[in-house]
Amino acid sequence: PLSPYGASKLAGEGFCAAYFHAYDIDTVALRFGNVYGPASGHKTSVVAKFIRQAAAGETLEIYGDGSQTRDFIYVDDLVEAIRLAITADGVGGEVFQIAAGSETTIGELTDALIRVMNGSGDGVKVRYTEKRLGDAQRNYSDTSKARRMLKWVPAVDLDEGLRRTAQWF
Description:
The chain has helices spanning 4-23, 46-55, 75-87, 106-118, 144-150, 158-168, and strands spanning 28-32, 34-36, 60-63, 69-70, 72-74, 94-98, 104-105, 126-129. It is an alpha/beta fold. The protein has a two-stranded parallel ribbon. A two-stranded parallel ribbon has the order 2-5. A two-stranded parallel sheet has the order 3-8. Helix 4 crosses helix 6.
């Protein structure tokens, strides 16, 4: 892990695995990608933040040059992965990555959001600022284990998920 946040998550996964192996307590750890979707108005995620800012006519602020990547996951796909993880047999002690399984730059995300919200992007301003300390340049999830063991595949692509999310907002 590159941040204390990431280290705390890894420690939690370690405890889950230890409880499974030492006490036979079924545990499953899910590593979520960047979650977005309806009912995320309280979140400070980049998707929720940018939708709120664009709708208010504010400038969208991108930390760094926009080339940093994230792996986004639509909330309905996440919920399905959770459901499968708690009902699947033989997955005790396992860790699964739950995301779309693709890298999207923050610049690409911004362009997609602008298209979804108003088509042309007229009037939406974007400002690039200094990169934040501790931000990972690349974030990508290998979801093959979840596909194989949970039979889980995300169903909502980024453009459709952003359309649904913007419509909710």
